[in-house]
Amino acid sequence: MRHAHRSLPVALALSLCLATLVAIAGTGGASAAEKLPVPYTFIPTVIAGGLPGANAPGTNDWTCKPTAAHPKPVVLVHGTFGNRATNWQTYGPLLKNEGYCVFALNYGMKISPGAILGGQDRIEDSAAELKAYVAKVLEATGAKKVDLVGHSQGTLMPQYYVRFLGGAKHVDNYIGLAPLWHGTYTNGGLPDLAAAFGYDAVDGSPVCKACLQMTAPSEFLRTVREGGVATKGVRYTNIVTTMDEVVVPYTSGIEEGMTNITLQKKCGLDLSDHLSIVSSRTAADLVLNTLDPAHPRKVRCTLHLPAIGS
């Protein structure tokens, strides 16, 4: 059983890699008058979603200006081995349809062959990329702050930007899907993800440098946790799933001083794993309610499967 558990991240990683490599170019952006289709599947939409040069639908319209109803742009931060297109096929059109200016970056791709799989560089370097990207978004939109929505590594890497690179004054909401504030303690998880792509995550200089940094205990985790995690002025929300097979235990995503939500306590039918949480209707509604608490909506509850989604 232990061997089977460890093989799950590898199988999911291989599925994600295959989906990314065979993806076709997607479309990016839409006029405010259009309503974009919002998919709630993961692997199928990754396949159809586009290579890294593509944008997820609804994202990266650099002419978008925030409205009084939604004055802060939303910046989407993908996870390890993801990219701005494959990770955000649900949230790009969802947020665009709700009237937000939505932006998504690629990061951590310096050592990725063909710049296909992101989030592999040192997290400190990726945080510097996020800093530059947020500055570009603020300049283009005229906004004072952004809201961040991240997945997996995209829930942890921004904290380095917030704490050490001046990001606290530019970030309001900091929302994490499948976060890992305490890292992952499994013998599988992120090291197995790296190994699934043929990378050595055992020696001191793995190709996926971020993988070891997120595996507890690590010097990076000690650095970002020292003195307390929650940063004054930033509103943190963590959405975790009990089905997470990469962040182990899943409670690694729960942190003192933050709003912590366990997906299955909101919807017992939601079986989202580490991947498909980014396409969950339940999680999406929780994110929307966090971004706009003045106009809460009923949180949907539907069957949502690991890796596949709905």
From TrEMBL:
One of its GO terms (biological process) is lipid catabolic process. GO terms for molecular function: hydrolase activity. InterPro entries: AB_hydrolase_fold, Lipase_EstA/Esterase_EstB, Stereospecific_Lipase. Residues 1-32 form the signal peptide. It holds the Pfam family Lipase_2. SUPFAM superfamilies: alpha/beta-Hydrolases. Gene3D superfamilies: alpha/beta hydrolase. This is Triacylglycerol esterase/lipase EstA (Alpha/beta hydrolase family). Keywords: Hydrolase, Signal.
